[in-house]
């Protein structure tokens, strides 16, 4: 028998420290985490035994036992579930393999150093989910004994939560896992309760873990006083789930344990029977989030293909919402039997933040992830889930605007991906998104609200894409629209650059970029005289700038700036070009059109100078500077900044001469 002392992985150690110096005002939740782990372990064992008939395990009486020992000041949560091998104990308990751990920890440290509230730290750590480690909020030593299903040798893991833990063999360990907490002394001021008090523990289980479908057993609070009751009564008093034990001779000093949870799958109960609190606790169980959900969604289908679903929209985006390897999907059950976590086939990627459970009646328990992807029934369920989630958010828009705003702030960017990925639901997605707009500096707007504000004569939904609201507001493209009082959507998410080209319209109104194409604002056309007046200049400029621009023309867009660059519909925008470069790719070169403001002194001055001195090389330099200014004004990047600076310096010098 070997005892090894092993250092915690650095991230794990840091998390433990955070736990020990408890951030939470409510420490009771550690019990929910342990029971949740046990419940998962029982689910896994049932499934493993079903799939592998040779597995040497006993699945007759799967359950969780919670034992308190006030004299020793311990609390034990035990299950006869899947258990862990020695390697698994080291990998799963001593290390944190979740992507993004160090980022979360860095943020946490920042939050603490900058003196942010406990709430802020709690939210961060809650997003991450810390499960088993929360034991160290209430215990100064934790002993875990486990035996993996089918294995003959058990393992004992022990730690005080500081730098290291020990692992040793435990030959007689029963199948499953038991976690014993050596409790810290009660400290009511710090919300640290007496968790060796059976009554307190029951109350916590009822509050947080009532819906767990496996029996959670505890010794009865008041053991039946001797003499033992007659056999008939004893059987009556026993719980429905325990086999009515007919061999009740004398009930020794050890009383029959009681089941303390009601065990009802929430999604199978009628909606009116389930309280908000129960939903919240269930949400925490499936999501590993410690906060409340933003919205709970129920749906069910009867008939040839029956299923029930209980879904949640979280109140905040998880850390890994935009990480490629993030897990997603809901839990899949078949007739109350847990089949898998993170079932991707049931929710599209753009709704990856949705949590919950789908319980389908007619699938095989053997179904694999690969088959699920192809399954027609699964596709049908998924289509319905998507429609239900989208319609639920739509009702939030009408009934609970604050929640709707939170939804968009947290998930809007992810949902936008659906505009490309899910063309069938495009209109429904457009209906629930909000966009920053020139209408209001703070509040984003729905498209429906935008359309309702469109003045007579405006036929399109105007937008501009770019990197930031402030840059877009200053863009020369905006000038004529501002002057006309037309509202413009300010789209600054990278994905905006892409969906605007794919989505043709909303409510029969086309999307029109104010930075592309010839814009007809119904204003005065350039009259013939002006056109003639500038004809020479435009021709000469087009020739001079031919390496950079497609054409030079007079503009309808400008009121104050001298010049602006305009793309054709479908052209890459400057932001997209930058995105290409950031990915290490050279974007295809697109020449755009340079538009000039016929009223601007720089433009009229250039016209006059060109008329007088058509061959002056300094004028060509001015033309290049004009182009460079237009490029910078819209947030584009100069191909040769040094040359531009040289030209500007030249022009400045000349102006002083
Ligand atoms: N009672 C148990 N039986 C079997 N395996 C367990 C048990 N408790 C924990 N584990 C294993 O250890 C892993 C880590 O548990 P931990 O509670 O730290 O995280 P988690 O449950 O995966 O997720 P979260 O941190 O979000 O709660 C679990 O995923 C599981 O594989």
UniProtKB/TrEMBL annotation:
One of its GO terms (molecular function) is unfolded protein binding. InterPro entries: HATPase_C_sf (IPR036890), HATPase_dom (IPR003594), HSP90_C (IPR037196), Hsp90_fam (IPR001404), Hsp90_N (IPR020575), Ribosomal_Su5_D2-typ_SF (IPR020568). Residues 1-369 are annotated as: A. ATP binds at residues 33, 37, 79, 84, 98-100, 127-132, 177, 369. One of its GO terms (cellular component) is cytoplasm. SMART domains: HATPase_c (SM00387). Residues 579-657 are annotated as: C. It is found in: Cytoplasm. It comes from the Bacteria. Residues 159-178, 223-244 are annotated as: Disordered. Keywords: ATP-binding, Chaperone, Cytoplasm, Nucleotide-binding, Stress response. Belongs to the heat shock protein 90 family. Molecular chaperone. Has ATPase activity. NCBIfam families: PRK05218.1. Homodimer. This is Chaperone protein HtpG. It comes from Nakamurella multipartita (strain ATCC 700099 / DSM 44233 / CIP 104796 / JCM 9543 / NBRC 105858 / Y-104) (Microsphaera multipartita). The gene is htpG.
């Amino acid at each position: 028998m070997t005892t090894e002392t092993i250092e915690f992985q650095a991230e794990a150690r840091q998390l433990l420290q955070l736990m020990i110096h408890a951030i939470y005002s409510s420490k009771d939740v550690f019990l929910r985490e342990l029971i949740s782990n046990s419940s998962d372990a029982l689910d896994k064992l049932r499934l493993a035994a079903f799939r592998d008939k040779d597995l040497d395990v006993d699945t007759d009486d799967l359950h969780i036992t919670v034992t308190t020992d006030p004299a020793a000041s311990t609390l034990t949560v035990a299950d006869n579930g899947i258990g862990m091998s020695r390697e698994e104990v080291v990998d799963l308990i001593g290390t944190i393999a979740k992507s993004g751990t160090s980022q979360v920890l860095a943020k946490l440290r920042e939050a603490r150093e900058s003196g942010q509230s406990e709430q802020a730290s709690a939210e961060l750590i809650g997003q991450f989910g810390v499960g088993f480690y929360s034991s160290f909020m209430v215990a100064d030593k934790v002993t875990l004994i486990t035996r993996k299903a089918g294995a003959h040798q058990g393992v004992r893991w022990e730690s005080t939560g500081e730098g290291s833990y020990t692992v040793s063999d435990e030959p007689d360990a029963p199948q499953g896992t038991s976690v014993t907490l050596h409790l810290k002394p009660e400290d009511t001021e710090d919300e640290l309760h007496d968790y060796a008090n059976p009554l307190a523990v029951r109350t916590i289980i009822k509050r947080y873990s009532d819906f767990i479908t496996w029996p959670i057993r505890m010794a009865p609070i008041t053991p039946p006083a001797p003499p033992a009751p007659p056999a008939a009564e004893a059987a009556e008093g026993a719980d429905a789930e325990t086999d009515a034990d007919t061999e009740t001779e004398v009930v020794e000093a050890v009383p029959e344990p009681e089941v303390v949870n009601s065990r009802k799958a929430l999604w199978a109960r009628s909606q009116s029977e389930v309280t908000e609190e129960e939903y919240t606790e269930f949400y925490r169980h499936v999501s590993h989030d410690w906060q409340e959900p933003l919205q709970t969604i129920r749906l069910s289908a009867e008939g040839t293909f029956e299923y029930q679903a209980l879904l949640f929209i979280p109140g905040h985006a998880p850390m890994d919402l935009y990480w490629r390897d993030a897990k997603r999907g809901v839990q899949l059950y078949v007739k109350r039997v847990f089949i898998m976590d993170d079932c991707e086939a049931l929710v599209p990627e753009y709704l990856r933040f949705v949590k919950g459970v789908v319980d389908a009646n007619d699938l095989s328990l053997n179904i694999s992830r690969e088959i699920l992807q192809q399954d027609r029934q699964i596709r049908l369920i998924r289509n319905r889930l998507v429609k239900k989630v989208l319609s639920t958010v739509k009702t939030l828009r009408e009934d609970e605007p604050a929640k709707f705003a939170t939804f968009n702030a947290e998930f809007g960017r992810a949902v936008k991906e659906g505009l490309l990925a899910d063309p069938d639901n495009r209109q429904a997605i457009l209906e629930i998104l909000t966009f920053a707009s020139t209408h209001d500096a703070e509040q984003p707007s729905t498209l429906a609200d935008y359309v309702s504000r469109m003045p007579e004569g405006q036929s399109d939904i105007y937008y501009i894409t770019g990197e930031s609201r402030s840059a877009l507001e200053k863009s020369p493209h905006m000038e004529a629209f501002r002057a006309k009082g037309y509202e413009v959507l300010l789209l600054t998410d990278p994905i905006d650059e892409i969906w605007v080209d794919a989505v043709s319209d909303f409510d029969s109104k086309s999307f029109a970029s104010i930075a592309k194409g010839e814009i007809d604002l119904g204003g005065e056309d350039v009259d013939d005289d002006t056109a003639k007046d500038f004809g020479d200049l435009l021709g000469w400029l087009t020739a001079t700038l031919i390496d950079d621009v497609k054409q030079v023309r007079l503009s309808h867009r400008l009121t104050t700036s001298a010049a602006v660059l305009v793309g054709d519909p479908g052209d890459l925008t400057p932001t997209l070009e930058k995105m290409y470069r950031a990915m290490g790719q050279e974007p295809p070169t697109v020449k755009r059109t340079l538009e000039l403001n016929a009223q601007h002194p720089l433009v009229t001055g250039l016209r006059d100078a060109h008329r007088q001195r058509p061959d002056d090389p300094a004028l060509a330099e001015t033309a290049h500077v004009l182009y460079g200014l237009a490029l910078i004004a819209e947030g584009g990047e100069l191909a040769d900044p040094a040359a531009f600076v040289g030209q500007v310096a030249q022009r400045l010098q000349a102006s002083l001469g």
